Amino acid sequence: MQDRVTYEYAVIRLVPKVEREEFINIGVMIFSKPKRYIGIKYKIDEKKVKAFSEDLDIDTITSYLKAWEDVCEGAPKGGSIGEFDMASRFRWLTASRSTIIQSSKTHIGMCTNPAEVLQDLYEYYVL
Q1: In 3-state terms, the chain is what percent helix, strand and coil (to 5)?
Q2: I need a surface site. Which of 9, 47, 53, 72 has the fewest CB within 10 A?
Q3: 58-112: per-residue pLDDT in tens?
Q4: pTM of the predicted protein model
Q5: Measured between alpha carbons, how far is 84 from 90 in angstroms, rounded to an integer?
Q6: How many domains, in total, are found in the chain?
């Protein structure tokens, strides 16, 4: 049996009208320093988003999330933030912001396989 290690995660939220503070869970990010793992998974439910606000451009939201994915993966398209180490990228992505895409506070747990936990969290919070 593998040893359990710590991980941190945050839920990605779409806040269609920031001033109303209502949100829709659209994704999850996870980071485990001991496993050297960082991951992100998201899905935009267009019908649900349009129920909150017809004014939102789904393509723009998708491009913002793709940028988050690039930073998370450390891809060249992630720019200078994407060059940070995993922990710094995760901290940057989970930093408090007042835009239409935000993250929850960071939560912690223990696991043996962070990729499996990412999938479980995604199914629980998003699907």
Answers
A1: 45, 25, 30
A2: 47
A3: 999 999 999 999 999 999 999 999 999 999 999 999 999 888 999 999 999 999 9
A4: 0.92
A5: 9
A6: 1
Please name the residues in contact with 95: beta carbons below 8 A apart, sequence gap of 6 or more.
103
Helix (H) or strand (E) holding 83: none
CA distances from 98 to 83, 101, 104, 124 (A): 24, 8, 12, 25
Do the Cβ atoms of 15 and 102 come closer than 8 Å?
A: yes
Residues 77 and 70: beta-carbon distance below 8 Å? yes
Q: Which two tokens stand for residue 86?
A: 């995993």
E strands in the chain: 5-14, 24-32, 37-42, 101-103, 107-111
